[in-house]
Design brief:
291 residues, alpha/beta, Rossmann fold, Zinc Finger, Delta Prime, domain 3, 2 domains, 12 helices, binds zinc ion
Length: 291
């Protein structure tokens, strides 16, 4: 993978490449624009590049650090986000990061903190973070992601180099979008049987189940946005509007939470059919339960 695979303006891409190559990477970078997945992917890519010990283009993909990053457990790359979707990025988390930043890296010379969904920080969280951004210890990097930098305090923005991903990058394949759309329609039809039918393409592919659930989560988020009077971000305007019309806000949140739980459990299931049956049952229950 290289930076050219991200939807970045040429100037920004060259800037990042140059700074990585010359080991002069800015200590705080704010990644905005694009889709949530694209922002996350770019943050992980840059974090990997910063801890990579390869000689030439970083990330090299083969050094020990790169292998650890790939498996998601490099001890010097830490990722933080609000505990709950649409929750607050806690001030305690920012304080803990501030303290931890002074601890030397485990493996190499660099330590990277990825802070996702920074738009959900309140002023106290941002101010707690600001203290460390003002004078970060050498070798410590902060990669912040949020839909738009304008959501951050100007004091935080002024400490960061902003990188803007263009457009809304669609991270899902046509098949994934189709299956997720079918699942959403089945929820609207309020039928567990329709849900089961919609999961048929997932029977043999656990990874596809994962992408489909992530796509469904975006559709549900869109439905919640449309409840709040905002326009849809994904290409699922119609089905998300249908969801918004069919379900109350707490119900939509309940289904979204269930999807997120399923995503975190997906790997634990040994039997794919059992997973899909359970998935349908749980989505249906979350959608239909009365509070
Ligand atoms: Zn490497």
């Amino acid at each position: 993978m290289s930076l050219s695979e991200f939807p970045l303006a040429n100037g920004e891409r060259r800037f990042l490449e140059y700074r990585l190559r010359t080991h002069q990477f800015p200590q705080t970078v704010l990644i905005e624009g694009g889709g949530e997945e694209a922002r996350r992917a770019l943050a992980r890519f840059l974090a990997n590049a910063l801890v990579c010990t390869g000689e030439n283009a970083r990330p090299c993909g083969v050094c020990r650090a790169c292998r650890k990053c790939r498996s998601g457990n490099h001890p010097d790359v830490q990722c933080f986000a609000p505990e709950k979707k649409n929750g607050v990025f806690k001030v305690e988390t920012c304080r803990a990061i501030r303290q931890d930043a002074f601890v030397l890296p485990n493996d190499g010379d660099a330590k990277v903190y990825i802070l996702e969904d920074c738009q959900s920080m309140n002023d106290s969280s941002e101010n707690a973070l600001l203290k460390i951004l003002e004078e970060p210890p050498a070798g410590v990097y902060f990669l912040l992601t949020c839909p738009s930098g304008s959501a951050m305090l100007p004091t935080v923005r002024s400490r960061a180099v902003t990188v803007t991903l263009s457009g809304f990058e669609e991270p899902f394949s046509k098949e994934t979008q189709h299956t997720a759309g079918q699942l959403a329609s089945a929820l609207c039809a309020r039928s567990e049987w329709a849900l089961l039918q919609a999961t048929a393409p997932l029977e043999r592919d656990r990874e596809e189940t994962d992408s489909t659930l992530r796509c469904l989560a975006e559709i549900l988020e869109d439905a919640l946005r449309s409840k709040a009077g905002a326009s849809a971000r994904t290409g699922f305007g119609e089905v998300s509007a249908q969801l918004a019309a069919q379900f109350t806000k707490p119900r939509l949140y309940a289904v979204l939470r269930e999807v997120q739980k399923l995503l975190s459990e997906n790997e634990g299931y040994a039997n794919a059919n059992l997973l899909l049956t359970g998935l349908c049952y749980r989505l249906h229950r979350a959608a239909e339960q009365t509070i």
